[in-house]
Amino acid sequence: MALAFAGLPTRDRAYNQERAIEGFTEALQYRTAEASPHDYAATQLNLGITYAERRTGDRAANLERAIECYTEALRFYSPEAAPAEYAGT
Fold it and tell me: Based on the structure, what is the number of domains in the chain?
């Protein structure tokens, strides 16, 4: 559902982004680094993208949070293990 909100072209974009952030954050309770590293990294990447594009709040703080999410995803997206994901991140 978070992916759907992140890409939803209707309604209020800021509202959709906030719902996406909530959804990705909730998903991380279940998509843990230990249980599913690839899914965890994908969720961190999507959360980072959403923070980078976020229209509400402090722009610098949103970008710092995005960088944190990208950095966390790169723990699992290495050039050897996942070269395409690594390059995309």
Answer: 1
| Distance in angstroms (rounded) separating the CA atoms of residues 47 and 7 | 12
Q: The whole model's pTM is what? A: 0.92
Give dist(CA 56, CA 89) in Å, integer: 23
Say how far apart CA 34 and CA 12 lie, in whole Å.
35
d(CA 76, CA 83): 11
One-letter amino acid of 39: D
What tens digit of pLDDT does each residue of 47-57 get? Answer: 999 999 998 99
Q: How far apart are CA 36 and CA 8, in angstroms?
A: 27
